[in-house]
Amino acid sequence: MKTILKAFAVLAASLSFAAAGEWSTDWEAAKAQAKKEDKPILINFTGTDWCGWCIRLEKEVFSRKEFKDYAKDNLVLMEVDFPRKKKQSDEVKAQNKKLDKEFGVEGYPTIYLLDSDGKKISDDIGYREGGPEKYVEHLKSLIKDKDA
């Protein structure tokens, strides 16, 4: 019973963070939110505490108001992190390893736009120069192309 309650608490916390435009770390919750809100998923395979390009992308794009405002209304954000120092639960580690294998990730950052079922609708977006405005414009064009 405690395990079930704990699972629901983790799911509720993941959904509340994701609903606020923050990065979810729960794959099933992210897909459920994407279906419920009819939004694509931006999945970010990253090494938040060691990957130089990942840290740069976070600093130049993902942490910026322009990106956050767009993402809050238009995307479900999913972070698949492979840190070296930051602690993660065994469940998150296992989920991330499975997703890494499923998507055939070969380096970080690897970023895909997915439909609500978790199917790719873009090639690897990765790091892009130009700041949040250009990144958002690229995402908009990918979504527009998918819808066309």
Topology record:
Elements: H1 2-19, H2 27-37, E1 41-46, H3 52-62, H4 65-74, E2 76-81, H5 90-103, E3 110-114, H6 131-147
Helix pairs in contact: 4-6
Describe this protein's structure.
This protein is mainly alpha-helical. The chain has a single domain, classed as Glutaredoxin (3-Layer(aba) Sandwich). Helix content is 55%, strand content 11%. It has helices spanning 2-19, 27-37, 52-62, 65-74, 90-103, 131-147, and strands at residues 41-46, 76-81, 110-114. Strands 2-1-3 form a 3-stranded mixed beta sheet, sandwiched between helices. Helix 4 packs parallel to helix 6 (131-147). Residues 2-11 and 13-18 have low confidence and may be disordered. Pfam families: Thioredoxin_7. It comes from Haloferula rosea. Keywords: Signal.
